[in-house]
Write a structure and sequence with these properties.
391 residues; four-stranded antiparallel sheet; 10 helices
Length: 391
């Protein structure tokens, strides 16, 4: 079988090797996003070769809300872990939630699928492989940023272990005497490296230069290692870290600039929202507001004429401090689901899912699955403005 994504072929090979050799194998595949975890799970379910080996998989993700995929409740998390412990499942596709904190049985297969994380996350994931003869595999494209980051993580891990041993073996009195010296010794090198990056970013993106700071973990690690390694060695390590910080900072800033330009393409008054099913125009983009920068609601009182409510409230086990879910809402004309009501500050507000609408702009009609892709600005919800409109 050949896959368009070569990592899937490698993943199948690793799973086949392990599950053929040890029938009692149990493993976790760590991936970056929930969507990726669900996609990989679906891929395994449809893979006859893997199913024939007795692989029984499921997904384990965090409890936080997401606009892309359904989040898990704490009870659902515990149910999956319990089935994994009892042997009803032997493979989990998980985000970083399974790296630490959750009581997960020991595994003999750990796979990091296209991840680019720090050395601590790498060690936490690998720490799940506690069973005898266990393996930890990394699946990434050759010479990719993920591979470069993993190699740096391995170097940082060695330095961290050396630093910890050095601190543990040091007499307390000597530590108190030496640590101020260590701090002063390294600060000069760290400062010079950060000045170079900040200067470069300041010329390119003046607004973001003040946000570039060394990671506290990296700073502490460098402090501890200063007495073990020469200043040039520490400086070389910091240069590698600084380069990654530099690239990441520029990438994020370019993304933010692109999104800001995208949101200025159309006047919200010129954009219509139409029902996905019956194509009825029901509101303008200027009627929309954001709560907590993630919940998109309609503040136009006349919008209620276009939808009907379900008889019962949407039930979820998780409770939120400032708001709760009400009834689901759907098109009055055709019954297409639009979203759910949100009870916020004692006001009942219609919260919309953009995937249930067709967005009509001066440049044409489009279906958008993410609010981050819209081409108009959405203001933040203002309590006073809403009261003035409603009362």
């Amino acid at each position: 079988i050949r896959y368009e994504n070569p990592k899937l072929g490698k993943l199948q090979q690793v799973l086949q090797d392990q599950f053929q050799e040890l029938k009692s194998s149990r493993g976790i595949v760590f991936t970056w996003t929930r969507q990726s975890a669900y996609s990989l799970h679906e891929w395994v379910l449809g893979n006859q070769a893997l199913c024939a080996l007795g692989i029984k998989s499921d997904v384990l993700t965090g409890v936080g809300s997401s606009s892309q995929t359904k989040h898990m409740t704490q009870q659902e998390q515990q149910d999956v872990i319990q089935r994994f412990r009892k042997g009803q499942l032997n493979l989990l596709f998980s985000t970083s939630v399974a790296e630490e904190g959750l009581d997960i049985p020991e595994c003999n297969i750990i796979i990091r699928y296209g991840l680019m994380t720090n050395e601590i996350a790498m060690m936490q994931a690998r720490g799940r492989a506690r069973a005898p003869n266990s393996i930890c595999s990394i699946l990434a494209k050759t010479n990719s940023k993920e591979v470069a980051r993993e190699r740096l993580n391995e170097t940082l891990e060695i330095l961290m272990e050396s630093a910890i041993k050095w601190v543990q073996d040091m007499p307390e009195k000597e530590y108190h005497q030496k640590y101020p010296t260590v701090t002063r010794r390294v600060n000069g090198e760290v400062s010079r490296e950060n000045q170079k990056i900040t200067s470069h970013l300041g010329k390119t993106f003046p607004l973001c230069s003040n946000h570039l700071q060394p990671s506290p973990a990296v700073q502490y690690l460098t402090d501890c290692c200063a007495s073990l390694y020469t200043v040039p060695q520490v400086s070389q390590l910091m240069s590698s870290i600084a380069k990654l910080q530099h690239e990441g900072m520029i990438s994020r800033k370019l993304r933010d600039i692109k999104l800001e330009q995208q949101r200025q393409l159309h006047d919200p008054d010129s954009v219509l929202f139409c029902c996905l099913n019956c194509n009825l125009a029901v509101c303008r983009a200027s009627d929309l507001r954001k709560i907590e920068n993630m919940h998109h609601i309609n503040i136009n009182p006349n919008f209620s004429l276009y939808y009907k409510k379900s008889q019962d409230c949407v039930a979820i086990s998780r409770k939120f401090k400032d708001w709760k879910l009400g009834n689901s809402i759907s098109c009055e004309k055709c019954g297409q689901i639009w979203g759910v009501e949100m009870v916020h500050r004692d006001f009942i507000l219609p919260m919309l899912a953009i995937k249930n609408f067709v967005v009509e702009t001066p440049n044409g009609r489009q279906k958008t699955r993410k609010w981050s892709k819209v081409t108009f600005e959405i203001k933040a919800f203002d309590y006073t403005e809403y009261c003035n409109i409603t009362f």
